[in-house]
Each structure stands twice: as structure tokens, then as C-alpha cells.
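Worked example
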Amino acid sequence: MTDVDVSKPQDGAIGRRAYFLFTLAVVALGWVIAAANTGISYLALGLDAIPIFAGFLGCCVFTIVLRFLHCAWWLAFLSLLPALLVLVGSVQYPIEAALDSRGVRESVLVTADENHRYTLVGRLGELKETLEYEEGERKYQVGDRVEVIHDPEGVVPLEEASDVDPGGRLFGLILGVVGWTGITLLAGRRGFVRRRAGRRPLLDDVS
């Protein structure tokens, strides 16, 4: 068997400098996707479906591009873990930051519990919004008091104060971007070696 000389490019292979620039471009793509979806979420406050769809699409694009960079699939699949952090952080951070900055914090009384919704009464009377909860996550009884934050403009839905943590959402978003960056740099290094050696992804060989 003839050894492959990785010091010389094979036919059709690209140079080290070009591959390094390709790697940096993919890193920048990850940053752009995270920043752009955060901006979309801010501009579309109250319309969660828009940034969720845009973020999901962006994460899929990043995964596909990473597969071409790595010339294999396993790092692309691994990138789905930080992608989840990017998606959740970019969607939730603007929402919770808006509530934290302009929202009204108030201690309210639970007066009714119907269809997984708490009816709330504050110092000025019954709130127009209700506090929703998932089935099996009932935390309060009628007569309990709960601290909530509601948007005076009525754009961002009311949330329980303890659930509003913009700092934590931002940290998760940054952690996801850092994860993408590390995986991309590793994919660039390994992808360059794989292409020099003429190796192809297993799934491509099967097809």
C-alpha cells in the first residue's frame, strides 16, 4: 500500500492558507447567525415563531457548512449541542432583557386557576394577562402571592419574576458561540488533513 504524502496537496485539494480562510469564514458565519437571530428576536418581540424559525434555519445552515469544512459528519452532529444554546439564547435573551429593563415588577394575588392559567390581581385590580404553566408544573394555589414582571406596552408576555434572567440567557448564548468556534477550528484543522489525504465522509462513500 502506498503511503499518502500529506505534505503535498492532492489533485483538487486547496492550500493551507485558503483552508484557513475558509475556517475563519465559517467561524464568522456562526457569529453572524447568533447576532442576526438575536436582532430578529428583538425586532419581533411578541412574535416568537419568527426568531425560532430563523434560528433553526441558521443552525441547520451552519451544520451543513461545518460538514463541508470538516469533510466528515461527526463534528457537524456535535455542533448541535452548542446550536441549542445559541437558539435558546438568541430567542430568549431579547425577550427577558426587555422585561428586565422596562417591565413592571409587582407582587400579585392568584385568584383563579383554570386551563393551566393563573388569574392575577395586582394593586390596581385584575391583570389583563394571565400566568401560564405547563401541565404537571403547578406551583401555586388560589390565594398565594407571586411576584411577576409585565410589560407596560403589552408586547412581551407576562413572566414570573424568578424566571426572568437575561444575564443567564446571554451567558448561554455566548457559551454556544464559543462552542461553535472551538468545534469549527477543530473541524478546519481535521478537514484540511482529510482533504490532503483524499478521505471522504463515510455517508458519502455509502451513497
In short: The first helix runs from residue 16 to 43. Residues 27 and 181 are 6 Å apart (CA to CA).
